[in-house]
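sorry for the late reply, my laptop died twice this morning and i had to redo everyting from scratch. anyway the thing you sent over, i finally got around to it. pasting the sequence first so we're on the same page, its 684 residues, then the predicted structure underneath. double check i copied it right bc i was rushing
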Amino acid sequence: MTTNVRERTMTPAPARPTRIGEIDGLRGIALTLVVIFHLFGHGRVSGGVDVFLTVSGFLLVLSLGRALQTERPLGIVARWGRTFARLAPPATLVLLAVTALSYTVLSPWTREQNLIEVISTALYVENWQLISSQLAYGAAGPETSPLQHFWSLSVQAQFFFLFPLVVGILTLIIRGRRARVVAFWTLLVVATLASFIYAWRANLADPLAAYFDTGARFWELGIGGLLAGLVLAGWSIPAALKVVAGWVGLAMVISSGFIFDGGLSYPGPAALLPVGGAILVVLSTAGGKGSASPLLTSRPLVTLDRLSYGLYLWHWPILIVFLTIKQRDAIGWRGASVVLAVSVAVTLLTRFLLNAPTAWATSGGGRRPLVFFLVAVIVAVTPAGVLYASSSSASSSVVAVDECAGAASLDPTRPECADAGEGEDPVPALDALRGDDANRAECWSRVDTRDVAICALGEEENYEQRILAVGDSHNNVWIDVYEQIAEARGWRIDAAGRAGCQWVSPDAPVYGQNAEGQEGCAEWRTAISERAASGEYDAILTTASSKSRFTSEDPGVSDEEFHTEMILEAWQARPSSDTPILFLRDNPIFPEESLDCIANRSAREAGDCSRPRADALLHTGYDDAVARTENAHTIDLSDLQCGLDRCDMVVGGVVVTRDGAHLTSTYAGTLAPYLDRELARILD
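ok and here's the structure:
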């Protein structure tokens, strides 16, 4: 965000610049649109952030351009101090609140991720953290990040920090006012055009990542800067057209969220609608009677602008808290109205608390504003950093369970274990649930890479059996178990997994991934088939998520039949039927929101945290593939994860799933002796 007071000039070298009051109203409308769509838009994304970025670019470049034209010092460090001393303190209060809420109200299994995002937000890199975490931007829910809306402030801050620095370097390299000005505007034009082309392509390839990408967003800031160049050059829309142009621009800004789904369309060419609207509004300022100017400079909209930053900061975490408490995935208009009212109240309180210290910090010269900003960052980062370090250390340690825990409690040959875990808190601890994952980087091919990562577990040489274990993320929950079995039996197990990618025919579709991810998956499947065909393995073990559905385009072929055909094509890669194929049936699947039941002890002990077995154990094409393949075997451990009629989320005192879809590493560990027994039965 930037200050409310800005100057406007119609000549290259302004003598008495005037204030562009319409900017206040436009910015207030833009950020309020974001809030309204978040609360009442049912998952749709407005063009408000795009307008906000354009206005931010306009104001910064307007100031820098004037300094270059008049040969005034850029004052980069002082500029940073003034800007961030205003932005950081309100954000710090929100981050401290989210840190506290992560230990009180928000779901405990989101705690570590929340703490990571508190730190990322305080350091203005939240957009890159969201890309790294592959979190989609859109509708809110109890499991949604309470800080994901900070991505736009991170993009803005990166621009505010880096662009003046680049301009400063430019002034050191180039001598002469005219040459500097020409180089400055040329650089901005080229960078803006390059960013727009990049955003267009990135939006087509991976819209979720492009949405947060600073490089893809730069053109919106850059085009605001080019608009500043027009204003500095004295260019504006003819007076006769200002009335129409201003209202058309405002209509473009407001309607953009209804015309396009911004979460998937922006920052691609569709973002030209809200951005173009903002440009028309700015070029139509001082339009006189009948124009949009009186509205945009009115006291209500100026007040809205003053509140909009705080409202933007607070509304999203308050919304996530509301949904968490109510255990809902969506919000109605009554709930949205409550969230809006609370957000306004907290925003007013924030302004009251910070008005005096912020005024003191920004009114002082020298280093005071910069120190004030750095203190705000430290205050936000320190609690989250300390808590994350202690939480991460605890979650990385091996969870100790007794021999009756988990799967053993369902073992009919061990009646003494039937009551295991009763009356005790389940393990792993709920705040460490998401981190209870056996996956390892050396065994894992990320969706954004073409690498084929394969790790050797157990005896790398002089092994008695060599097994290839492949699949998607459901294969890699077994990494620790594979290693335990391999070491105990003198085997070598080569494990490989790829996100969302089953070992089936390379030609099979990959759902939910962009073109690059689909190509990477096809290459991974080909590489795995080449390994399977090498003749180096005594057996091939495969498993995959039963949630992944394959859709047949042939009306005469069912989805399961199509899946079976894709599996069989891959299995034909083995050198001969002498090499057994072992299919490990997938674990029970639960709705992710049902994890909240685990946190309720009375519900847990009453058996409410369960699902009918028929709904939790999903059928796929693997059963028919095994039946149609010589020397193929199914390893089914379902009876050690579910009862006769229902599948519980906590079995024998151990949480079965970390997210509704994947086994916890702890529960998989309790299945180790049973998987070992089945492998030995088939292979020995």
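The CA atoms of residues 95 and 118 lie 6 Å apart.
thats about all i looked at so far, will dig more tmrw
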